[in-house]
């Protein structure tokens, strides 16, 4: 995050005005309260406020460096007490060195000794005021960024609502499934009835969940298995699925985020070859993250003619907006095995 005082020229003007007002007050106090002569009071005011004005710019980086929601309030208070002690002490020391070098007489030393306690208190107060301003700006910017991110997410949902529905319920998948049902009603009526039940259950799940709803991995995989069972009626032994997800059933994932992976595997794997395609699904939990992997063999020559679909790109964008990280989807392609790995943070709330 950039320094707030450099974002707009007006901010620097206000900052300068603050120090001018403070200088006027200090000059009056030096003359009236501490009875300093005019030259000493003027030089002391200019030197001390110029130095603290420059140090005040650096306090922004102290604030940013100490901002961490995971740290306790005790840590934060201690952090700023130490920073304040260092900055105010350095300010007093440097001001004294310059004043003495300029005047080089006992009168300035006596004046500095007289105003030191009050000056230290004023320095601490100024540090606090500047820190409060920077914190206010920092959290205002964070709130604004979050609001903008939520707006972008809502816009994406609105713009892609129809395409996401098409992704969830692929028209070709529906047509092929209905054709399979039609065929089974003649050849194997009992299987036709079973497939109709599976298809209706599949459609019900696809339509009842909101776009950003979290569901358990077990729920999502029940839906995926229905999808694969329906597709297996069409492809038969060409399609085989193997699952290893026993220990991760309770993990939470965004609704309907897995289906495009299996659609991709079938479109570019099963559909494009005459050989059997095995879709391997593995899931494990590590460092409070769900690591979900789907891999399938494919005919490289056939896939090269097709190019990539938009399913994986949409998943990457969705993960980036939901979790703030576009690297949560990784793809590898080795030895005619196409692998997609999703990393889903746990204990996170969707926007």
Structural commentary:
With 351 residues, this protein is of the alpha+beta class. 66% of the residues lie in helices and 13% in strands. It contains 11 helices and 7 strands. The mean pLDDT is 81.
Q: What's the short story on this structure?
A:
The protein has 11 helices and 7 strands. It is of the alpha+beta class.
**Number of continuous helical runs:** 11
Question: What is the CA-CA span between the terminal residues?
Answer: 22 Å
Name the strands of the widest sheet in spatial order.
Answer: 2-4-5-7-6
Order of helices and strands: HHHHHHHEHEEHEEHHEE
CATH fold group of the largest domain: Heat Shock Protein 90
CATH C-level of the largest domain: Alpha Beta
Q: Tally the beta strands.
A: 7
CATH A-level architecture of the largest domain: 2-Layer Sandwich
**How much of the residues is beta strand, in percent?**
5-15%
Tell me about the largest β-sheet. Answer: 5 strands, mixed
- What's the rounded overall pLDDT mean? 81
Secondary structure layout plus pairing:
Elements: H1 9-32, H2 38-66, H3 73-103, H4 106-159, H5 161-168, H6 171-187, H7 189-208, E1 214-216, H8 217-235, E2 239-244, E3 252-254, H9 259-270, E4 277-286, E5 289-297, H10 300-304, H11 311-323, E6 329-334, E7 337-345
Parallel strand pairs: 2-4
Antiparallel strand pairs: 1-3, 4-5, 5-7, 6-7
